[in-house]
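Hello forum,

I keep getting stuck at the same step: I have a sequence, I want structure tokens, and every attempt I make locally crashes halfway through. Rather than fight my setup again tonight, could one of you with a working pipeline run this one for me? It's a single chain of 281 residues.
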Amino acid sequence: MRSKYTFADLIIHSQIWVAIAAWSLTWLSLSQWNNFEFKLPLGVGLLTWSAYSYIRLMGQKEGIHSVVYQALKPLYRILIFIAFPLGVYLIYSLAYGWLACLLIGLPPAVLVLLYPLRVGKKVYVREIPGIKLSFIIFCWVWATVSIPALLLRPEPTWEIFSTHLQRLFFLLVWALPYDIRDMANDDVKMETIPQLIGRKNTIRLINVLIFILQLSFVLTGFLQYTSFELTLAYILGLEYLQAWVRNANEGTDRGRFSFWIESTPFVTLLLFLLLQSIFVR
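Reply #2:
Ran it on my machine without issues. Output:
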């Protein structure tokens, strides 16, 4: 029987956009600190792709998307043996030996390994209330801010702290639309934010958080923690996200809505590079 999924569906669900998002957010972190190292965003992107592919290989279901993930399993099996070692090598090349590399990568690695596993016979780790969103946000903040900071900016500063805090809220408003998408498919015992307060209230919450986050970038811009170009790029990138959040619904468009939400970090990076080309001489 012919699959109802198109080639575009397979590309959207290939995890390449997840890797590009991780690459973009790491690049934005390094741009904020004026300390760019090309290998680091690439390594983070490859490891992020590997982590999501591992979850798919473990058979983690995603409701309407599970058929696509099953179709892509052969590709995941082949590419993960290339992407993961290369990502580890790129991080290792910037670390102070294997022990430092292991300690830096261990926190998100443990959470990723646990995420698709079962607790007992019926409950997945991700189905424990609060776990899904907490694991996702922690891993992304650690990968795109903490790892770059530990490798390239080991001294603790208020600038590093503000980057972590802003990234945490950025990822929260970025992740919540996916919880809206999965409302009907997530088990009710997960008690996700959309399940608890509903779709409309979740969208209102996202809008409030986006406004607060935009104000925070104005503040860090005033304090010169973020350049004018980076501040404006984040504000415009969040406006882009907010425009798509208005259309957030359960199971929206077999992943195409998710694709546009997922592209927010890349759009923000493109805006930053464009603004840099205009204002920086």
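The CA atoms of residues 66 and 270 lie 31 Å apart. If your local run keeps crashing, start a new thread with the error log.
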